[in-house]
Amino acid sequence: MFRSALRSTLSAGFVVAAMATASAQVLEIGADLGPTGLDPHLITAFPSFMVVNGNIYEGLTAIDRDLKIIPSLAESWTISADGKTYTFKLRSGVRFHDGSALEAADVVASVKRLLSKDIASPLASRLSAVESANATDAQTVELKLKEPSAALLSSLATIAIVPRSMETNKDALQKTPVGTGPFKFQEWQPNGYILLTKNEVYWEKGLPKLSGLKFNIVPESATRQVGLTNGQYALLPNIDAATALQLKGKPNVKLAETMDLAYTLVGMNVSKPPFDNPKVREAVNYAINRKEIVEAALFGAGVPGGPLSPALKSWALDVKEFGCYAHDPAKAQALLKEAGVTTPVAVSMKVLPRQDIKDVAQVVQEQLNKVGFKVELINQEQGQFIQDWRNSNFDMFASINAGQPDPDEYFYRTFRTGGSTNVFKYSDAEIDSLLDKARTLSDQAERKTAYDQVQKKLACSGPVAHLTYGTLFSAMNDKLKGYDVMPNRSLMMLRSASY
Amino acid sequence: MTCTGAAFLHAPVLFFFEELALMNRVLLARLIDLVIVLFGVSIIVFLMIRLIPGDAVAIMLGANTEITPERMAELNRRVGLDRPIVEQYVLWAGAALHGDFGTSLWTGRPVATEILMHLWPTLELTFLALVIGAVLAVPVGCHMAQTHGGAADVAMRIGAIAGLTIPSFWLGIVMILLLSAWAPGFASLGYVPFSEDPIGNLQRMLLPSIALALPILANLSRLVRSAMLDALGQDYIRTARAKGLPERRVVYKHALRNALIPFLTSVGIMTGYLLGGAIVVEQVFAIPGLGRLILGAIAERNYPLIQATILVVTAGFVIVNFLVDFLYILVDPRVRA
């Protein structure tokens, strides 16, 4: 009796709650981590990127689901014959959330803000080719480059345009972002939620369809899953295969999937033995069985991959092109013998503290130990891992990196001698000259030829053994329409979603 | 009618003033204790969080962010981490003495605001868990003592051991799963302030309070049981029974009062811990309490936030201990001597 009474009270509460969500149409999102700040020029982490990119802020360009560059705040653009002057025509009728109209001066101020020493933006290197930005009239912006930069249009998709009044303001945008996007900032309860509401004067008529987005910060995976199945959350964006498998087939839940741009990798320090020897690095590649890693650590949801994600269809080479990807322990042993190192080769591998990476590292450890390595896994706390990574304090490390839509954005900083994330201390004259040349080429076929050579060389003797590209999932209530998961993890498609 | 209230009725009026003077002395001594503890803790926390590897800027940037060393130096300067550590401490302590605990490293939000936002859910959880756990522990413990050796006692003791050993994250997840199967749509996750939506608030607090209360109930009821068993064997209990008092009165008035001292000590310590935030339960139920605030602040090396939050938690612990001492005086006349 008591039980049934309690039960009907609970259901009544549910009906009231359901009615409230139906009329409000705020999309309840279950996110694992909260952002550390909302200033689009200061943030680098996924949790922050996910909230601001394409929802609150927009760039001159955008990246669509097929990783193609599409117009956003710039309606169109022209590139001079020498590739050093880009002229952007801005979309008219765009307003910032504070009511001011978007003009060329705002774009110029945003570029200057990003490059200023005082703001200290970690994204500044994405515009390192830019020499100057000028407004030729209220709707036209001209970017002059020091040298041609083939990746510029792709990079600009991640450079948010902020109001010119913010050019020298260091703090305001971290707490209260002001953009042009389909949703505007409403409230941020740290560790609780971030609430965005509909931008009523968004430039694309009829959008957004939702009246708001609520990012609920729910650290525990099991809790997010229950929240989705019981209807409290309508979307779990960018989840891994393990979570997706558990949600598969649950009532009212549907899954969307795409090939991830992010990749798992094992990095090797080439500034000291044994990985200073290219033969040892090649041996690592022969020893690794990537298919087994996909099965054991990614639950089969993924593919073996080379230096570029298979999602980059116009760039990535098929892994069959890489000889060392044919799992061959005997060949690996022979290479170690050739390299003249004494086996077992004792090395340590530092592991990023994420369950999927710990799983990957264990599989790799076993595979390497079979051919004559003696790998010691070192599980580290996040801060310690990052510090050791930055200081090149490792023999090997296992990690996962976000990929970029343009090859130059990844290769140049990672494998060019002295590159800003070349923590491996890798230096190869041939790679350097190919990378230098490729970023100035404007012809797609010529660039592809150059990057094909780069991929072939890096795949087997580079400082990184690229392992796998996972399948990226989003799980959602089946009433959610018009949203799809994107390889770069952006949630910009929410602008045309309805619930 | 509790025995505590009865004691006061018999106390002479004069005694009340003596007690006030004693209380003032105790209060003053405790305040001095508090200042010393806070000062010591502030130095230890300040040093400890800076000695653990990984600095705030590198962590904010994450692994694999492209950045030049010059930019990193600029970011360090931006948040004042380029200064020598002693200077950082003096600057921070000076401001803290004026009531300014600084701003959160990256968001620039005042630390005091952040702590206040996270304090309410923690206070509410602490209160509810204690009410459920401690209030139930007394009758359960008394009943176990009265029927000791019997089937009910054995069953309850097994239950208590289970309550102590079941990890609360597991219990939390199981409860969420069961509830979602049994009453789908019952909003059990997250937090809404009581002032905004009282029913929604209590709905969401129900499971986490139970998850926190069960180990408290288990622990305290065992404690009450053994203290009561001890007390029930005493001569004065035999006297009470001999003069024909009902068993209820013997147990709840005469025996319980003597069993209360260890009970209060335990409740005090538990309250202190709960005020520090129940990290695991907060994680599982997605409640923005102090535990998650501290955990997040440590993970991102948000120095000003860590320092202030630990100080608040420490102060809470000391104050709760003081209140417990005060309760001893009320409950047990011998402490006054």
UniProtKB/TrEMBL annotation, chain A:
Residues 68-420 form the Solute-binding protein family domain. The keyword Signal applies. One of its GO terms (cellular component) is outer membrane-bounded periplasmic space. GO terms for biological process: peptide transport. InterPro entries: Peptide/Ni-bd, SBP_5, SBP_5_dom. Residues 1-24 form the signal peptide. Keywords: Signal. GO terms for molecular function: peptide transmembrane transporter activity. It is found in: Periplasm. PANTHER family: D,D-DIPEPTIDE-BINDING PERIPLASMIC PROTEIN DDPA-RELATED (PTHR30290:SF38), PERIPLASMIC BINDING COMPONENT OF ABC TRANSPORTER (PTHR30290). Belongs to the bacterial solute-binding protein 5 family. This is ABC transporter substrate-binding protein. The lineage of its organism: Bacteria, Pseudomonadati, Pseudomonadota, Alphaproteobacteria, Hyphomicrobiales.
